[in-house]
Amino acid sequence: MNLEYSDADQAFREEVQNFLRDNTPSTIRTKIDARQKLTKEDYMAWHKILYGRGWVAPNWPVEFGGTGWTPLQCHIFDEEIGLSGSPRVLPFGVNMVGPVIMEFGNDTQKAHYLPRILSCEDVWCQGYSEPGSGSDLASLKTRATRDGDEYVVNGSKIWTTSAHWADMIFCLVRTDTNAKNQEGISFLLINMHESGIDVRPIITMDGGHEVNQVFFEDVRVPITNLVGEENKGWTYAKFLLKHERAGIAAIGSQKRQLNRLKEIARAEQSNGQALIEEPRFRDKISRAEIELMALEYTELRAVSAANQGRVPGTEVNLLKIRGSEMQQKISELLIEAIGYYANPFVPDSFDAGWNEEPIGPDYAAALAPEYFNWRKSSIYAGSNEIQKNIISKMVLGL
Amino acid sequence: MNFSLSDEQKLLKDSVDRFVAERYGLDARRTLIASEDGYGRKNWKTFAELGWLAIPFSDASGGLGGGPIEVMVLMEAFGRGLVVEPFISTILMGATLVETLGDKEQKAAIIPPVVRGEKLISFAHVEAQSRFTLSDVITTASTDGNGYRISGHKAVVFGGDSANQLIVSARTSGNQRDEDGISLFLVDAEAKGITRRSYGTVDGLRAAEITLSNVLVGPETMLGKEGNSFAGIESVVDGATAAVCAEAVGVMDSLQEQTLEHLKTREQFGLKLGKFQALQHRSVDMFVACQEARTMMYVATLSLNKPRADRIRAVSAAKSHIGQAGRLVGQEAVQLHGGMGMTDELAVGHYFKRLTMIDTLFGNTDHHLERFAATVHG
Ligand SMILES: Cc1cc2nc3c(=O)[nH]c(=O)nc-3n(C[C@H](O)[C@H](O)[C@H](O)COP(=O)(O)OP(=O)(O)OC[C@H]3O[C@@H](n4cnc5c(N)ncnc54)[C@H](O)[C@@H]3O)c2cc1C
Ligand SMILES: Cc1cc2nc3c(=O)[nH]c(=O)nc-3n(C[C@H](O)[C@H](O)[C@H](O)COP(=O)(O)OP(=O)(O)OC[C@H]3O[C@@H](n4cnc5c(N)ncnc54)[C@H](O)[C@@H]3O)c2cc1C
């Protein structure tokens, strides 16, 4: 046992750091530093830069365009991306549907979709949740009825992140209404530009637009877009959920947030001293840092086991719970740090090109909206209650 | 010991509850927030007609001579409706400062028009560096002839965008955080040398950054004695703190009810969400937090007229406790609503945001814990 990274891993980390430092476009860097919104074009530009370096899908096998890195190297890469503040690649193609197609898709699908995911020719979104089916995903009702060489899809998906940017959506659809819930579901790839699809924005309480409701009315989808077997979609869906939750602890970006918290607490004054000197607040920062350490090394235990060839198991559920709680905790401390300046809200200031004087310190504007927005992390990707249900059943045997 | 409202207080409660239920839906509120004023002039007029704006002022000043309990009743209902009218800034801060520290002429000039709904006053006190320390004032007022010149920057002045008049705190002597040496001035909001930068807040209110550069005021504008207004500020802020505790309780009760309603209607896995024990227990925790918050609201309200040390102890205990309870109730309400709780469309998020921001007002949970601790341990 030891806690050290090997020399090779350290060298790898430096290589990643250098790359990120030298290759993040200044337009993106400026927005990140100013806490402004990234556009679809920013995400695509960044995706293509990583693609150019061969690093867009680190966890894919080399034969499909992955890196061949060890799980620990993938972890280091993720951590460095987060620490640098560079955007993460949109996960829906690379981390979600890609692995499903590799595992369960046919050769034609692999040859068509995988390269387009890598090159960002297709932007993907995830069509799982429905208005009536959130935690109880298997109760989903969106119907796909066979009609010759096509499926005809009717129904609605909701909370679909990035649907307004997407070219493709992978959907769970019901193909057998007589079978038990889990047994009548299929995994279908649908072109978002098809007629009969309507994407309506859902504005979240922080004022942002990242999720949507997607409506399908008689949308015709070639049966060649079915992944694997009809009515076996639930198996593929569960396989995917594991991938969705991996990396969700986002250690790198959490460390970045914690550093930001410390910087702000150094800059903020409280009763004649820096806020960070105030024992009550300093304890809270320390507490958060200790919890983050516990999370980081818990994740590293899992990564290290994976490095030795063990398949990841239910630890992803634990990492999802604690990762989301920590994101929320740190964002809570961030608004706490800025006192009254959590209140002002100037939505335009989050758009690139806004160059008025900030209200209050320049780090303050985004913090309350971010805090509100982070409430999502204990809800999405399987709510924390559902994660706990899974752990208590699968791990504790209750 | 008695925690019941008098008959008159019950009538007040009925009337404000009815107003909120009938006239203050989420859509009406959205329209107000998006309007130029950011609040409802018509609502404000109604408040005046119903006598709500007169409640905290003495008969002699043209008020109704109500006390902390009446204010609590109003504020709880305002919380339940997420009312955006500038009641705290104008009535509980601005005009109450005049009532507390002003002389006869000042009261006569200000309180009657305020009570009629014709004048808005904000208290421009907090500064960028002051955080929650009430005595941390670096805005200065230096003598000029027999008047003063005021210069400085005031941060996040609630209602500061629409106020006709400002009460500006400024240092006439002493060091940055000395309690002595702070004076208050009644300044016309349009006076020469004042710049206001107005903006909306994350919870739908309005505020302004106010910069004063060499604003010339006469000696008659001083509220209270020169350099001697700290005690008045502190007691007015304690009153407003108790009032936002009541507002928070209204917000929390509403969040708890909305959440219960959701758990009783939304189904997953073929069951109402409320059938899952994990959620039942969480709802009980929310209920308990609301009950205790209500208790502490009473404790704070009923201590406002007590001697300073008792008042501080009670108000800080309540603000700190309600800050913590509010965080739990707000976060849980969003969580138990699932994705719906994250939306701008549903009311939950709006209540959650207001509750979150109430914690930043007049000192947050930690600030009041510290202030309470100081009363215990000297
Ligand atoms: C910002 C955001 C982005 C999202 N992006 C996507 C996306 O891209 N694609 C997609 O398909 N989905 C997405 N989702 C949807 C997300 O997966 C669902 O919101 C989530 O599964 C919860 O479902 P629900 O919202 O219907 O809540 P519900 O399932 O109605 O749950 C409400 C509450 O009840 C609790 N609960 C439910 N059942 C139980 C139980 N048995 N025991 C204990 N507690 C229970 C939940 O934990 C929650 O607290 C996103 C959600 C958000 C908020
Ligand atoms: C100091 C002491 C004094 C006592 N005095 C008396 C007395 O004077 N007269 C008397 O009759 N009894 C008395 N009791 C007994 C006491 O009432 C029981 O211990 C209590 O009811 C719990 O029962 P149990 O010990 O069998 O635990 P269990 O009922 O087996 O419970 C074990 C755990 O499971 C939890 N649990 C059980 N059911 C559920 C559920 N449906 N949902 C969620 N959680 C659940 C419990 O909360 C507990 O944490 C006393 C006990 C103690 C410790």
Low-confidence stretches of chain A: none
| Overall radius of gyration of chain B | 21 Å
Average of pLDDT of chain B: 97
How many helices of chain B? The count is: 11
- The secondary structure category of chain B is alpha+beta
Low-confidence stretches of chain B: none
Beta percentage of chain A is 15-25%
Look at the structure and give the mean pLDDT of chain A. 95
Helix content of chain A: 40-55%
- Annotated CATH architecture of the largest domain in chain B: Up-down Bundle
The number of domains of chain B is: 3
Could you tell me the CATH topology label of the largest domain in chain A: Butyryl-CoA Dehydrogenase, subunit A, domain 3
The CATH topology of the largest domain in chain B is Butyryl-CoA Dehydrogenase, subunit A, domain 3
Major sheet summary line of chain A? 4 strands, mixed
Task: Give the overall shape of chain A, derived from the CA principal axes.
Answer: globular
Structure in words:
The complex is a heterodimer of chains A (398) and B (378). Chain A has three domains: 7-89, Acyl-CoA dehydrogenase/oxidase, N-terminal domain (Butyryl-Coa Dehydrogenase, subunit A, domain 1, Orthogonal Bundle); 123-231, Butyryl-CoA Dehydrogenase, subunit A, domain 2; 246-394, Butyryl-CoA Dehydrogenase, subunit A, domain 3, CATH 1.20.140.10. In chain A, helix 1 runs parallel beside helix 4. Chain A has 398 residues and is an alpha+beta fold. The mean pLDDT of chain A is 95. Chain A is globular, with a radius of gyration of 22 Å. In chain A, strand 2 (143-147) and strand 3 (150-158) form a beta hairpin. In chain A, the strands form three sheets. A four-stranded mixed β-sheet of chain A has the order 1-4-5-8. Chain A contains twelve helices and eleven strands. Chain B has 378 residues and is an alpha+beta fold. Chain B folds into three domains: 7-118, Butyryl-Coa Dehydrogenase, subunit A, domain 1 (Orthogonal Bundle); 122-227, Butyryl-CoA Dehydrogenase, subunit A, domain 2, CATH 2.40.110.10; 231-377, Butyryl-CoA Dehydrogenase, subunit A, domain 3 (Up-down Bundle), CATH 1.20.140.10. Chain B has helices spanning 7-23, 26-34, 41-49, 68-81, 87-101, 104-115, 230-265, 277-301, 308-337, 347-358, 365-377, and strands at residues 121-124, 140-144, 147-158, 165-171, 182-188, 194-201, 206-217, 222-223, 267-268, 271-272. In chain B, the strands form three sheets. A four-stranded mixed β-sheet of chain B has the order 1-4-5-8, covered by helices on one side. In chain B, strand 2 (140-144) and strand 3 (147-158) form a beta hairpin. Chain B is globular and about 80 Å long. The two termini of chain B are 29 Å apart. Strand 11 (344-345) of chain A pairs antiparallel with strand 6 (194-201) of chain B. The structure holds flavin-adenine dinucleotide (2 copies). One flavin-adenine dinucleotide sits between chains A (125-129, 134-135, 159-161, 211, 376, 379-380, 382-383, 385-386, 389) and B (266, 268-269, 273, 276, 278-279, 335-336, 338-339, 342).
